[in-house]
Amino acid sequence: MKTIKDLNRISEKKTRTIVGMMSGTSLDGIDVSLFRVRGTGSASKLTVLKNRSFQFPRGMQEMLLKNSETGGGNVTDICRLNFMVANVYTECILKIIRSAGLTPAAVDLIGSHGQTIHHLPIEGKMFGVHAASTLQIGDPAVIAKKTGIITVGDFRTGDIALGGQGAPLIPYFDYILYSSKQKNRALLNIGGISNMTVLPANGMSSDAIAFDTGPGNMLIDYLMKKYFNLPFDKNGKIGFSGTVQRDIVDFILEKDSNLAMKPPKSSGREFYGKTLLDEIVKKFKKANPADLISSVSFYTACSVYLNYKRYIEKRTAINEIIVSGGGSRNLFILAMLQELFGDSVLVTTSRAIGLNPDFKEALCFGIYANELIAGNPITLPQVTGAKEATLGGKICLP
Q1: CB atoms closer than 10 angstroms to residue 249
Q2: Is 80 exceeded by the pLDDT of residue 26?
Q3: What is the number of other CB atoms lying within 10 angstroms of the CB of residue 41?
Q4: Domains of the chain, with CATH numbers?
Q5: What is the CB neighbour count within 10 angstroms for residue 206?
Q6: How far, in Å, CA of 41 to CA of 225, rounded?
Q7: pLDDT tens across 65-110, in order?
Q8: Percent of the chain surpassing pLDDT 90
C-alpha cells in the first residue's frame, strides 16, 4: 500500500514511468500508452515504451452508448458501469505493463481520463441551484486499488467548477510538446468529436486558440453500423465510393447549434448523438447509404473549416493542420480537409511530428498526471472559459 510519503517521493523524481489511457466518445476502444518522461511542462522529454489498443468486452460498448444518450441512462447501469469500466481499464493497464517486461512496482503513475457518460458544460438551474456538470466513469480509486499504482483521474471537474467548459483539455499538451517557432500550427484531433488547437508561431500558451469543432467519427460510425454492419469506415473507402449530397450537408448545418456558438465551447453526444442521427435517417431514408457516409464524412471536415473561417482565421492564419485520433486514418476526411483549406495549408497526420496519431489522447492524460504531481495547471482559461487556470485531476492512492 502506497502512502503520502510515496507520493512525495515520486514528485521529487526527475524521470517517471507513467501509463496514460483514454476511451473516447466514439467508444471504439481503449487506448493505453506506457512511457517515461523526464521533466515537466515545456521541458518534458518523452520516451514511449509501448502503445496498445484494447476492445471493450462484448456488449459493454452498447451498454455504455445507451447510458450516454440523453434520456437513455439507467442509474443502476451507470453505477455498475463505473466499477466495471475501471476493472476493464485495470486489466488493460496490467497487460501493457507485462508486455513491456515491467511490473506494476516499476510504474509511478497512471493518468486515466475515464469514459464520458454525459457532458453538460452549459450552466443549468434546478431547485434554485445553478450548475454545469460532467460525468466520467471508470473510477480512478478502483484502478489505484487494483493496480497498486497511484492514479490520477477526473481531469475536467475542476475547470467546470471554475466556470469553464471542462474541454477541450488537449491544448496545453499540444502547446508544451508541439508548438512551432516557425509555423502557425493547428493540431486537429478527430475522435468521436473533433477538437482543434491553433498555436501561433513562437507563441505563449495564452496565445492558443482551441475548442470542439463538431462531429468527428460519431456520425460516420453510427451509419456504418446501421447500413454496412461495420464499426467504422476503414481508410474512408465508403466515403470515397459515395457522392457528397448538398441537401444532407445543408440539413446537418441547419441542425448544428454548436457551430453557431462562439468559443469557448465543447460538444459531445448531446449535440451529435441519437436524436440528430434519427432525424438524418428519417429525412433521407431513400438516400444511397454510401452517399450518406460520404456526406456526413464531408460534414466532419466542413465543420472544422467553417469554425476556422468564423472564429480563427482573422486572428491566426494557419500554415499546417496536423491530424490525430481515429479520424486520421480516414483518408476521405483528410482529402476533404485538404480540398477545403486549399494548397496554402498542408494537411498531414501527427506522425509527421513523431507522434502516433492513435495514442495522442492516452499520452496526454498520462502527461497530465505528471503535471499534477509537479503542481502545474493544465487548463487554459481563454480556451475553456474558466475564471482561472487550475490543476487537473484527483489523486487516488492504492
Answers
A1: 17
A2: no
A3: 15
A4: 4-167+359-396 (3.30.420.40), 170-353 (3.30.420.40)
A5: 11
A6: 41
A7: 899 888 878 999 999 999 999 999 999 999 999 999 999 999 999 9
A8: 84
Q: What are phi and psi of 240, to 5 degrees?
A: -65, -30
What is the C-alpha separation between 175 and 42, in angstroms, rounded?
8
Cell of 4: 503520502
Report the C-alpha gap between 84 and 138 in whole angstroms. Answer: 7
Judged on CB neighbours under 10 Å (0-12, 13-18, 19+), 131 is: exposed
Does 160 score more than 90 pLDDT? Answer: yes
| The three grid cell numbers given for residue 72, joined into one nine-digit string | 437513455
Q: How far apart are CA 96 and CA 98, in angstroms?
A: 5
**Residue pLDDT, tens place only, 226-264:** 999 999 999 999 999 999 999 999 999 999 988 989 998
Q: Is the pLDDT of residue 187 over 90?
A: yes
**Which residues are paired to 348 by β-bridges?**
322
Please state, in angstroms and rounded to a whole number, the distance separating the CA atoms of residues 368 and 377. Answer: 9
The model's pLDDT over 190-221, given as tens digits with 9 standing for 90+, comes to: 988 999 999 999 999 999 999 999 999 999 99
The Cα 190–Cα 381 span in angstroms is 23
Examine residue 264 and say whether the peptide bond preceding it is cis (omega within 30 degrees of 0). Answer: yes
In whole angstroms, what is the distance from residue 266 CA to residue 176 CA? 21
One-character DSSP codes across 293-356: HHHHHHHHHHHHHHHHHHHTTTT---SEEEEESGGGG-HHHHHHHHHHH-TTSEEEEGGGGT--
- Distance, in Å, from the CA atom of 155 to the CA atom of 133, rounded to the nearest integer, reads 13
Instruction: Count other C-beta atoms under 10 Å from residue 121's C-beta.
Output: 24
